[in-house]
Amino acid sequence: MQNDNNSDDRPDIHDQRELHKMAIDSYFIYFQNPLDYELEKIMKNLIELRDGHYNHFNAFEKMKREEPEKFIALADQSGKSPEELIAQGYDSAMDAHYVEEELNAFAEVQIIYAYKHLEIHIKRLLDIGYGIKNSRQLFKWNTLIEFLKAKSILIEQLEGYTEINQLRRVNNAVKHSDGLQGNEFDDIPELKRKKYTDAESLLAFYARIKNVPNQFIAKLGGAIYNERFTFNEDRLKDMSTEIASRMDKDIAEIFIERLRGFYK
After folding, report:
1. Could you tell me if residue 239 is inside a domain?
2. pTM assigned to the model
């Protein structure tokens, strides 16, 4: 029987397979969130600035309440009236409030980028593993779950899925700014019984799940690798049974011969 396989194509097939195996197997090494370090520095400075303003306000309020004579003396020393000193304290409280809003904005950015970064790398893994490019429909979460299930990958059973799904939900809540409806976030301890997100809750949530995306990508990459390139006895039996149920003997012999041709 003539071999119809193009010998020039065979090295490409094998090289491509090995490249894909290496790319998937080592993918998690390159999954690093480049924004975390810079955001954490910015937010650390904002927290210190906010706390400084609050401490200034609270010190004025405590002195005014508990040591009124000392408060009046301080006003005299500074060349201000007690009322002006009180106003200065309230200015500090307002400054703290504005810094808090900035901090909340950065905390939201951290959540949104963390999820977007994860989504980008899931897309890249699926491109490497299955040649899927830019399928918006696929990246509806339930569609992604069903696609992987069809590949015998149960994403909901992968280590880190619970935290990743929480990140997805918090990301949606932050992006749509609809508040936290009902008790749908009560399974997330940092948001339990809250009506709205704030910097404190978002930072606490992110601190808990920060390292999970890297772990999850590693597990997903391993699952895709096994589905694409690992063939045990049971799987080979299932594959051969499925092919035999569809092919007559003559067609099967042609198929086997052509398959062998790729390994000569």
Report:
1. no
2. 0.83
